[in-house]
């Protein structure tokens, strides 16, 4: 169950947020000011924060900075301030999204789901910094590859391709996704690029490139890395 911290001094809106979140199986903690928000945050880090900028005891932007200094939980600002300068200040301080009041509850919840999905994906990628197999080790953070203890040199394109696949072990990555991520929109249909570079990677990594163990082709669909 995801935990959401709601920081909102409008009691009616705070109640509406709590009801809508809890009916969707979120656990909700609520504060009406900055001090209360920081106390709740210290008691248990939430998975996301919904934060009003117009708080009675502190500037909402300063609260964003305080939260961001100790956590990477998504922060969605809820504010009646429509000026672009206010939005820029909040986003530069560390907010992930800015929703102006009045807003659609369905839209807000969709933005919350998207923000928490992005954070989970980032957390998975950060946790998976080193991928070890029986024949080679990929250090994603250091951008190093060792095969049987010896460094293997990859071109920037080869590394980018391997990095994307290794970050999602056991999951198929579509041809189009790989082409867009590595080469860009102009090459989205050039599947021959993938065949050439996958062959190069297999020659550097696989014991038998003709019978790959780690870099698996799913014909017509994409590729999969099996550690």
Automatic annotation (TrEMBL):
Residues 128-227 form the OmpR/PhoB-type domain. PANTHER family: KDP OPERON TRANSCRIPTIONAL REGULATORY PROTEIN KDPE (PTHR48111:SF50), REGULATOR OF RPOS (PTHR48111). It comes from the Bacteria. This is Response regulator transcription factor. Keywords: DNA-binding, Phosphoprotein. Gene3D superfamilies: 3.40.50.2300, 6.10.250.690, Winged helix-like DNA-binding domain superfamily/Winged helix DNA-binding domain (1.10.10.10). It holds the Pfam family Trans_reg_C. Residues 3-116 form the Response regulatory domain. The modification 4-aspartylphosphate is found at residue 52. PROSITE patterns: OMPR_PHOB (PS51755), RESPONSE_REGULATORY (PS50110). Residues 128-227 bind DNA.
């Amino acid at each position: 169950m995801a935990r959401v911290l709601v920081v909102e001094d409008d009691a009616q809106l705070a109640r509406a947020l709590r009801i809508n979140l809890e009916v969707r199986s979120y656990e909700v903690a609520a504060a009406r000011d900055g001090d209360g928000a920081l106390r709740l945050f210290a008691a248990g880090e939430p998975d996301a924060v919904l934060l009003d900028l117009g708080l009675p005891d502190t500037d909402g932007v300063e609260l964003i900075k305080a939260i961001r200094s100790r956590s990477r939980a998504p922060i969605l600002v809820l504010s009646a301030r429509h000026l672009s300068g206010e939005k820029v200040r909040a986003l530069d301080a560390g907010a992930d999204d800015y929703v102006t009041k009045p807003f659609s509850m369905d839209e807000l919840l969709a933005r919350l789901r998207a923000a928490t999905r992005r954070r989970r994906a980032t957390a998975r990628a950060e946790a998976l910094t080193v991928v070890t197999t029986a024949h080679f080790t990929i250090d994603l953070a250091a951008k190093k590859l060792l095969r049987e203890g010896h460094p293997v040199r990859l071109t920037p394109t080869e590394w980018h391709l391997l990095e994307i696949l290794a970050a999602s072990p056991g999951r198929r990555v579509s041809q189009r996704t790989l082409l867009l991520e590595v080469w860009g929109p102009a090459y989205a249909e050039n599947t021959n690029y993938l065949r050439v570079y996958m062959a190069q990677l297999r020659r550097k990594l696989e014991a038998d490139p003709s019978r790959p163990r780690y870099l698996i082709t799913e014909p017509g669909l994409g590729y999969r890395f099996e550690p």
